[in-house]
Design goal:
Layout lengths: L3 E5 L3 E4 L4 H14 L2 E4 L10 H14 L7 E7 L6 H9 L3 E6 L19 H10 L3 E3 L13 H16 L5 E3 L5 H8 L5 E5 L8 H5 L16 H11 L6 E3 L8 H4 L14 H11 L6 H13 L7 E6 L9 E2 L6 E2 L9 E4 L2
Helix pairs in contact: 3-4
The structure holds (4S)-2,6-dioxohexahydropyrimidine-4-carboxylic acid and zinc ion.
Length: about 350
């Protein structure tokens, strides 16, 4: 049995770091293992302008432990009022790496997102021209569409027409949860990729709902049936550069999750690499872990891979992990994969 695996330092191509006390608690968790992360802009209020992104980047950097080598890659939150010139300037100046599209009302803090896609056409055209990638939360918000169908319907109704209307726009379909999305991404040769989270490789919808409701497994897009989880595992472990890691690690204080109307989000940053090594080992694909976590994401974004490395060692004894991260906003429960973890990250 393989006892260790060495990778280029991984990156997280979709991460929620929040702000204030939560930011100070969770930023060191990502910085411990990851070299860079695409930082989601769904703060309250959202990160709307280049100036907002610059200020948020400074707050993140201030929250990192001394000596951390972690680069936050900033995004802007696309609204119907986004100024194309501001986006292009922020990208040219290296302040932002991408722009995030939330359909209005799709998920946590998405109220300022896009309702009428014709109203963002000018920004999308400018982004295509300037080479600014668009990260997409791929769910329709139409209340008549069943929540388990919202991703597949989004591809047909919104994403495919949007891509055809804006040739040259580079698009990342974020946190895909369905075989439909994996198939769609595979149907396009260039300019379209998908991130896959750690938790969607581990849970299906039964984990959320069978035998009692488990709020810490609730996220958006919600986990689908088992056949979709298996399709995601196949995509992630295939060595296909169109699929790479975006954890969507999304901390909420336990009180906000364990509630009559609980928030969406799984907090996976601290032990994501241990879980992924387990998943890839299960699939007989440990040799493909590095592509997924460390090579394909930078290649899509036109960046070099990190030049330092991280080693995972397989211990016989299971890792002892805390169940919760304590923050000044209250405890945050770590995602429980439901199996013992044996892959330990070094240096830690
Ligand atoms: O589960 C999720 N949580 N999905 C999202 O799209 C947003 C995120 C959050 O911000 O909590
Ligand atoms: Zn997210």
């Amino acid at each position: 049995m393989t006892s260790h695996v060495t990778l280029r330092r991984p990156d997280d191509w979709h991460l929620h770091l929040r702000d204030g006390a939560m930011l100070r608690a969770v930023a060191p968790e990502s910085a411990r293992h990851f070299g860079r992360a695409i930082i989601m802009p769904n703060l309250v209020p959202p990160v709307l302008t280049g100036a907002d992104a610059r200020a948020y980047r400074d707050r993140i950097t201030a929250a990192l432990p001394a000596g951390a080598r972690f680069t936050p890659l900033m995004t802007l939150y696309l609204t119907e009022d986004t100024d194309p010139a501001d986006v292009v300037a922020a990208h040219r100046e290296g302040v932002i790496t991408a722009v995030k599209l939330y359909p209005a009302g799709a998920t946590t803090n998405s109220a300022s997102g896009v309702r009428d896609f014709d109203r963002v056409r000018g920004v999308l055209d400018a982004m295509a021209e300037a080479g600014v990638p668009l990260c997409v939360h791929g769910e329709v918000t139409d209340p008549d569409i069943d929540i388990f169908d919202r991703e597949a319907v989004f591809i047909d109704r919104i994403l495919d027409p949007l891509r055809r209307a804006t040739p040259g726009l580079r698009v990342v379909m974020e946190h895909i949860t369905t075989a439909d999305a994996a198939d769609y991404v595979r149907s396009v040769e260039d300019g379209l990729a998908a991130t896959i989270t750690t938790h969607h490789l581990v849970i299906n919808r039964n984990h959320i709902l069978a035998g009692g409701i488990r709020p810490h497994y609730y996220c958006l897009p919600v986990a689908k049936r088992e056949s979709h989880r298996l399709a995601l595992r196949a995509a992630a472990t295939a060595g296909d550069a169109r699929f790479f890691l975006g954890t969507d690690s999304a901390p909420h204080p336990d009180g906000a999750k364990e509630s009559a109307c609980g928030c969406a989000g799984c907090f996976t940053a601290p032990h994501t690499m241990s879980i992924l090594a387990h998943v890839f080992e299960d699939e007989g694909a440990l040799d493909r872990l590095e592509g997924f976590t460390s090579l394909y994401g930078p290649a899509f974004y036109g960046l070099p891979a990190n030049d330092d490395r991280l080693t995972l060692v397989r211990d016989d004894a299971p890792l002892e992990l805390p169940a919760k991260l304590m923050t000044d906003d209250g405890p945050v429960t770590l995602f429980d994969p439901g199996f013992a973890l044996h892959w330990r990250v070094t240096p830690n």
